[in-house]
Amino acid sequence: MATARKGKAANPVEGDAESAAAVRILKKYPNRRLYDTQTSSYITLADVKKMVLEGQSFEVRDAKTSEDLTRSILLQIILEEETGGVPMFSTSSLEQIIRFYGHAMQGVMGDYLERNVKTFGELQSRFAEQSQGLAFSPELWTQFMGAQSPVLQNLMGGYVEQSKSLLTQMQEQLKEQMQQAGAMFPVIPGMPGFPPKR
């Protein structure tokens, strides 16, 4: 998994030096070029994508302000992947994601997506471990996938169950929050929008 780190300063506090040393710092200049401080050379988004695929820890910082631009760069990579080749998101799913911005459920949706992506990544890792050491042509891979359907069904069944469980937990949390909010702001009969007192 990509390990671009959130909220850490480029200059580590004492005691965090070892973990900070492992974080690769990339600087973004006004000319939109990216500079890798580890290799002392300019790099491209393709190089950053390679770091993500290899699981390297990195941060992208504005060369002048030191503002953390990591998310912005990762979103650029996603945009390139979505506009070229085979996109992961359909138009309707992108529209639905956009509708959640500014909505009361935005935080819940973000948490739900993050947990599901993490769970799916773990599922992918387990499957990769089971098929380790096997080299496949596209035809052999299709045959292998057909033969592995019970294994895949088992793995996917576990993923679906975890996803359902996660959604249920989030619904319960939201219900509790709504009940707490209701206790803080009791309904006053006769107020506009509420039924008159009987």
Describe this structure in words.
The protein is of the alpha+beta class and 198 residues long. The chain has 2 domains: 17-83, no CATH class; 91-182, no CATH class. Helices cover 55% and strands 8% of the residues. A 4-stranded mixed sheet has the order 3-2-1-4. A hairpin with a 5-residue loop joins strand 1 and strand 2. Helix 2 crosses helix 3. The chain is extended. The model is unreliable at 5-18 (pLDDT under 50).
Give the secondary structure arrangement, pairings included.
Elements: H1 17-21, E1 24-28, E2 34-36, E3 41-43, H2 45-53, E4 58-62, H3 70-83, H4 91-100, H5 106-130, H6 138-147, H7 149-184
Parallel strand pairs: 1-4
Antiparallel strand pairs: 1-2, 2-3
Helix pairs in contact: 2-3, 5-7
- Summarize the biggest pleated sheet: 4 strands, mixed
What's the Cα radius of gyration?
23 Å
Order of helices and strands: HEEEHEHHHHH
pLDDT averaged over residues: 75
> Which range best describes the helical content: under 10%, 10-25%, 25-40%, 40-55%, 55-70% or over 70%?
55-70%
For the largest sheet, list the strands in their spatial order.
Answer: 3-2-1-4
Structural class: alpha+beta
Integer count of domains: 2
Q: Number of helical segments?
A: 7
**What global shape is seen?**
extended
Enumerate the spans where pLDDT stays under 50 for 5 or more consecutive residues: 5-18
User: How many beta strands in the DSSP annotation?
Assistant: 4
Ends: how far apart? 60 Å
